[in-house]
């Protein structure tokens, strides 16, 4: 691995480890749920071929990540602009930490890391409200955001679930909606769809629905990060 990229990845992952290891959100009700969602976004280097990267990424999932203790599921996707995401579900934060530490020192994945544009890489971990089970999904929407100051967390959690019961869960192609929070209080929503087409069909109706407008009014709009990704492989 190139020293500069190695150093950058180590810095990014170390910062993520620090933010996930300090409890800064004692009011969250999700912290006792063991499922961890790790979200890493990045671009690949300009000299990296997308098809070659997809094949190498699949091998990393099969030969490295899936072999780590506490592993549940790994998913890799790409959006319409060529931005990548890797989502990994773990049984505990300790399992996620152990895998990260091993990844940083394992020579078998060094060539994979060299394909990634280091400065574009961002990683976050969230404690989720329920286990992942969207086995037939080919597309995922991931939205992370901060709540506006003084938001009543209990009322927001109720509203958050009503988005699914009143709208998203009724849409054609919907498979699962997961919600979570990290130790700093940043919220995340991951919605799994049967296909990109079924997700696309729900975008405009979602923006127009009254429950969605109420939901989005609780967000600090400058903090919202939204990604829509088609999986590289099932």
Q: Can you describe this structure in just a few lines?
A:
With 234 residues, the protein is α+β, with helices and mostly antiparallel strands. Helix content is 36%, strand content 28%.
Topology, please?
Blueprint lengths: L2 H19 L14 E9 L5 H14 L7 E8 L5 E7 L2 H13 L4 H5 L1 E13 L10 E7 L7 H14 L7 E8 L5 E7 L2 H13 L1 H7 L8 E7 L3
Antiparallel strand pairs: 1-3, 1-4, 2-3, 2-8, 4-6, 5-7, 5-8, 6-7
Helix pairs in contact: 1-3, 5-7
How many independent structural domains?
2
What fold name goes in the CATH topology slot of the largest domain? Answer: Alpha-Beta Plaits
CATH class of the largest domain: Alpha Beta
Averaged pLDDT: 88
The number of E-state strands comes to 8
Helix/strand order: HEHEEHHEEHEEHHE
Total DSSP helices: 7
Q: What's the CATH architecture of the largest domain?
A: 2-Layer Sandwich
- Beta-strand proportion: 25-35%
Helix coverage percent of residues?
25-40%
Provide the spatial order of strands within the biggest beta sheet: 1-3-2-8-5-7-6-4
